Amino acid sequence: MLESMKADRALIAEKEAKIIDLETRISILRKSITIAQLEKQVVLARLDSYKYPVLTLPNEIVSEIFVHFIPPYPNPPPPSGVLSPTTLTHICRHWREIALTTPALWRSINAADRFGRHTPQELAALATLWLDRSAGCRVSISATEPSPIFAALISHRSRLEHLELDAIRTWPLEVLEGPMPRLRNLLLRTPFLLPHISSTPITIQDVPLLRTLTLPISTAAPHPILPWAQLTSLTFGEVHPNDCGVILQKTPDLLNLSCFLSLRQDLPTQSIPATDIPLLRLKSLVLETDRAPEENFFQSFLVPALESLEVQEDIMAGPDSDRDAIDSLDAFIANSDCKLKTLRITEASMPWSSYRKVFPSIPEIVLDEHLFG
Q1: Which of 52, 174, 263, 347 is the most buried (most CB within 10 A)?
Q2: Residue 51: alpha-carbon gap to chain centroid
Q3: Which Gene3D superfamilies match (predicted)?
Q4: pTM
Q5: Residues 340, 303 contacting (CB under 8 angstroms)
Q6: Model confidence pLDDT, tens digit, residues 108-157
Q7: What SS3 class is residue 224?
Q8: DSSP for 211-228?
């Protein structure tokens, strides 16, 4: 019996040693499995980086790429669809976080739905959402008549840099008449022939940075009260020559001017004496008309720095002048002593060769849509 017990104890010791050995091997195997799994994850991550290299870019770089996905500011992207910045929030959670924390993606808002794809309430909600996402950025807003957007415009007026109001007949004046300290570009496509301002001029002041202005047709009310003297670019959608002359006397720093001159009978006008209109810094001038105005309007410009002139041919001579358009243009250039680089004649009846013969020093002459040089 003693021998049997001794044998059993030896067997137990052997089994215990074997168990310890197996457990040691299992522990080593587990560690090997863990190491292999970690190495596998490293390889998988490396493979993912080969397959999706954009995921390895820093967030700042991805954000900059996103900004180049939309049109250059201040041009607005569409409020919805594949070209909208909202598309970037639908790719993956990581990209969504980056897009929502990139204010520059949301600073240009197109709330002018000319195709009726969104209700006014939807556009107003979208504008409010985008304005919130744009954080402290200066913003650009293009809007039509939906009144729900008024509150967003007014509450964020301190950040407005570019503002376009189109085809609107019910805008409350407070949208325009409050301070807009960062506004640089204002485009109004709405006629000022509105009943509620027929006796009072619209007043836009407290806009110290405003430099570019586009106005619609002449107003039945007195001329808008604007900081004319600080403007460098001015466009009239439709204006009587007299009204144009009255305003241009107040804009000495203009660099660019575009006017559509109209002699419509229903356009009220203010009288202006025949006098020079000195625009000594003007570089670019565009003149169009629905009917040729009196000759002295074209000749009244004094523009010694002018480099680019686009003019409708019958504006130059006027309907009652014995001087043809080329002679009138020659006198205009001589009077201002300007050195034109580009001349474009619209609705031309005279051949290009006639202009080139008289103006050989102008590098580029354009007739209608055809370029000659």
Answers
A1: 263
A2: 36
A3: 1.20.1280.50
A4: 0.76
A5: no
A6: 988 876 555 777 778 888 888 999 999 989 999 888 765 567 777 888 88
A7: coil
A8: -EEEEEEPPSSSPPB--G
Cα–Cα distance, 303 to 19 (Å, whole number) = 104
Q: Given the structure tokens 């106005």, which residue do they identify?
A: 215
DSSP state, residue 148: G
- Pick from 52, 93, 86, 92: which is nearest to 69 by CA? 86
Residues 244/215, Cβ–Cβ less than 8 Å: no
Instruction: Give residue 233's Cα distance to chain centre.
Output: 15
One-letter identity of residue 249: Q
β-pairing, 277-278 with 301-302? parallel
CB contact burial 223-256 (16+ within 10 A = b; e otherwise): bbebbbeebbbbbbbbbbbbbbbbbbeebeebbb
CA angle, residues 351, 356, 360, in degrees to nearest 5: 175
**Which pair of tokens denotes residue 23?**
């457990």
Q: Which of 195, 200, 192, 199 is nearest to 168 (CA)?
A: 192
Residue 111 tokens, joined: 């709330």
Instruction: Provide the token pair at 212.
Output: 């570019």
Residue 77: left (phi > 0), alpha (psi -120 to 50), or beta?
Answer: beta
Question: For the chain, where are the alpha helices, taking DSSP H only?
Answer: 2-51, 59-67, 93-100, 120-133, 150-155, 174-177, 241-248, 295-299, 313-317, 325-336, 352-358
